[in-house]
Amino acid sequence: MAWGGEASSHGAWRGDRGRVSARLELIRALFPDLASDLDAAAARHATPGAAASLDDRLDAAATRLLPQAAFADIDDRGARSRVERSFAAARAACAWMSVDPPEPEAFAAAGVDFARLGAELAADPSLTAVPAPFGCGADVWRAAFAAATDGSPDAVGETHRSHALVLASEAEHEFGVLDAAPAGAPVATSSGVPWTLRLIPAGVRPPVLGLGFAHGPHVTLPEMLMLQLMLLAEGEQPVDSASFTWLAGALADGRLAARHVYDESERTIRITCREIGNQGPHLGARTPRG
Predict the structure, then answer these.
(1) Where are the domains of the chain?
(2) Is pLDDT at 149 greater than 90 in this prediction?
(3) Domain of life, per the record (predicted)?
(4) Which of 47, 96, 124, 183 sits most deeply, having the most CB atoms within 10 A of its CB?
(5) Mean pLDDT over residues 204-208, rounded?
């Protein structure tokens, strides 16, 4: 029986669709004896409908087994569970954005070291794995937070006075700077959209406060917004209700930088801008890892 990208001699197995999904390939690799038996059965009793039905059933089985297989490089069980939970929350958040995240295998193929991420997660319970898309544009994020209000009306809301996501004029004007993927980070793509997977400090406030913008590197705007959507998808409160987080990307020819805050009284995520030298006891950095 052929594996990988080679064509199988059993056309009935692959049916009229002429391909096997990545998940089905994985389940065949994990259980070669079962796959061989099913190949033989499909060859004996094949019809196009039966082959498609078998393919669908195995794909569903692969979906149940994939969480363990996709993160097999993560040794610590607790860390592995946290990554699985992050991907589940990200998928829920993506429904509000109308985008599809890459599968974990795509991140691994792009160069994400899941073993190292797992070790860092195990060592620091404040970190969260955040898959984040770049280049989506401000309107997509605004629409996502507006959609999130239905599931989390106590946390974020749309009123006649304010939206769930509010951008300062400077951030709106140079949104492309804030929406750029971080240099040097592995990038996976889904439907042409670039994504990164990094660990973000996800405590209620940044781990280090009282810093100016020069004390980076900083979390990107898409990572911060995705973290908030993931929290909302899990029924949790947004972070930064009593703090500000610097965001990567200098604006206004290097004079300004954006910062993130959650306005709990207005149930709004706000992106404001300040001079890069600004610092205070409630302003800090969430330095990404990965």
Answers:
(1) 11-70, 77-285
(2) no
(3) Bacteria
(4) 96
(5) 94
What average pLDDT does the segment 40-56 reach? 63
DSSP 24-44: HHHHHHH-HHHHHHHHHHHHH
Give which of 111, 114, 109, 89 is closest to 101, Cα–Cα. 89
Instruction: Classify strands 193-201 and 127-133 as parallel, antiparallel or unpaired.
Output: antiparallel
Indicate the pTM of the whole model. Answer: 0.77
3-state secondary structure 122-179: HHCCCEEEEEEECCCCHHHHHHHHHHHCCCCCCCCCCCCCCCCEEECHHHHHCHHHHC
d(CA 243, CA 260): 8
Q: What is the CA angle 43-53-189, rounded to 5?
A: 105
Q: Record the tokens describing residue 83, joined without a space.
A: 């990554």
Q: What percent of the chain has pLDDT over 70?
A: 73
Phi, psi of 209 (to 5 degrees): -115, 165
Is the pLDDT at 19 greater than 50, yes or no? no
Helix (H, G, I), strand (E, B) or coil at 195: strand
Task: State how far the Cα of 259 lies from the Cα of 220, in Å rounded to an integer.
Answer: 10
Tell which residue, 141, 121, 111, has the closest CA to residue 221.
141
Instruction: Please give the radius of gyration of the chain, using alpha carbons only, rounded to the nearest integer.
Output: 22
Cross-strand bridge partners of residue 190: 193
Question: What is the per-residue pLDDT for 20?
Answer: 39
- Phi, psi of 267, deg, nearest 5: 55, 50
What average pLDDT does the segment 217-234 reach? 97
174-202, pLDDT tens digit by residue?
A: 999 999 999 999 999 999 999 999 999 99
